[in-house]
Amino acid sequence: MNQSHVSCRDMYECSCPELDQLVDICLQSGAVGSRLTGAGWGGCTVSMVPNDKLDSFLSNVRESYYKTDARRAALETQSLFVTKPGGGAAVLLEV
Length: 95
Description:
The chain is mainly alpha-helical. It has one domain (1-78): Alpha-Beta Plaits. Helices cover 46% and strands 11% of the residues. The chain contains four helices and two strands; from the N terminus they run H-H-E-E-H-H. A two-stranded antiparallel ribbon has the order 1-2. A hairpin with a 6-residue loop joins strand 1 (33-37) and strand 2 (44-48). The longest helix is centred in the middle third of the chain and has 13 residues, at 54-66. It is globular and about 55 Å long. The termini are far apart. Keywords: ATP-binding, Kinase, Nucleotide-binding, Transferase. InterPro entries: GHMP_kinase_C_dom, GHMP_kinase_C_sf.
């Protein structure tokens, strides 16, 4: 994930300073991987965080990224959330 973000930022130039800052904050807050996702250029990040670090991760990201800017703070509740990976795509074959 981390190398993917570096590639998007450096080779494809589809990141922006705010996304780079958020990825750095996520990694410093306990994520084992973090990268931009979606369209880039002000889009979103996705981070892999161990369950035992989740509470402190959310708190640190909230304080370090969202609470430092009034515009970001207004978007926090719809922007900072937890999800779990799903099973992914599957092909069902009838027999």
